[in-house]
Design brief:
By secondary structure, the protein is of the alpha/beta class. It has 5 helices and 5 strands; from the N terminus they run E-E-E-H-E-H-E-H-H-H. The chain has a single domain, classed as Nucleotidyltransferase, domain 5 (2-Layer Sandwich), CATH 3.30.420.10. Strand 2 and strand 3 form a beta hairpin. The radius of gyration is 16 Å and the shape is globular.
Length: about 170
């Protein structure tokens, strides 16, 4: 199963494709989509959408996992990140891909085992799970890989639960 993890944003969208075979997780490709500041939001959203469609077409994931919006004090930022999240989800849905949504708490719980883990702890665990030589940069990329790992773990649990229910 190939999972695309996404950390949504308007300036930087982190993405990470991982393959899951049994219990083994393998990184396929990861990076970021970046848009230029002081550019019209509509144009930036178009850039994010088009770049994501190209990535989906190239790496052909089986599922998409995206981080749920964590509402902070900056309402303007929350709105633009929400808009970016919307176009990213649209790109996935138009390709017929199922989408898993995870809160930052759920991701931290799945990766570190503790929902209030520090960002650095999550990054180190991503590095370890995927056997990377360094923590991916910028932070958004490591966050996207963490979301993908969370989904891979969650889908494994769902498979086990569904198998047990069939018996």
């Amino acid at each position: 199963m190939r999972v695309l993890g996404i950390d949504p944003g308007i300036a930087i969208v982190g993405f990470g494709f991982i393959d899951k075979e049994g219990h083994k997780l393998t990184p396929v490709q990861y990076g970021s989509i970046q848009t230029e500041a002081h550019t019209d939001d509509a144009f930036r959203l178009k850039q994010v959408y088009e770049a994501m469609v190209q990535l989906i077409d190239k790496y052909k994931p089986d599922a998409v996992a995206i981080e749920k919006l964590f509402f902070n004090r900056n309402v303007t930022t929350a709105l633009t990140v929400g808009q970016a999240r919307g176009v990213l989800m649209l790109a996935a849905v138009q390709k017929g891909l199922p989408i898993g949504e995870y809160t930052p708490l759920q991701v931290k719980q799945a990766i570190v085992g503790y929902g209030k883990a520090e960002k650095k702890q999550v990054q180190e665990m991503v590095k370890m799970f995927l056997k990377l030589s360094a923590v991916p940069k910028p932070d958004d990329v490591a966050d996207a890989l963490a979301v993908a790992i969370c989904h891979a773990h969650s889908s494994g649990l769902l498979d086990k639960m569904n198998g047990a229910m069939r018996r």
